[in-house]
Amino acid sequence: MKKIIFFSFSFLFLSFSTTSGQLRHIKGNSSVGLIYGETGNSYLLGVGYSHYFQPSWIWNVNILYETGAVASTKFKNYSVNGGIDYTFLKISDFLYLNAGLSAFSGFEHLTTNESSDETKNFTTGTIGNINMEIYLNTKILVQIKAEQYYSPLSLLGKWFPVYSLSLKYCIH
Fold first, then answer.
1. Which single residue of 57, 154, 163, 171 has CA 20 to 30 Å from 119?
2. In 3-state terms, what secondary structure has residue 99?
């Protein structure tokens, strides 16, 4: 048991010790990741890609699937979004705060409990976000994000917040 504890602490120490002194936001770096998010009425899953085209400027693209229910309406949404994040605060070499703007487009599939008829709707809009990147080591980071969607064509509502967590793998 002591050996397991020793090796676990050694691994954690080495993982975190490699984070000091290494810059993460370097021009040309990229990351791929998995996304899990929630709103008040749904959850979403997705994949994403980020590219640092300057140390403080990040280009992102995500493919998302969302499912949930509002009142007596069940829905499934499929969307793609892309945008730019700007790093406005760097706290140490492993913690970055970013803000960004994105655009999205996709389809809503709505089904009401009263009928089995499915309504399909094209939707598009903008997204404002603030996020925090936490580097666990040189290759793995966790991103915590709060977003505000504006969707003027949506049948579900015009404004809705999304809170998400991403686990990303860095490609150097």
1. 163
2. strand
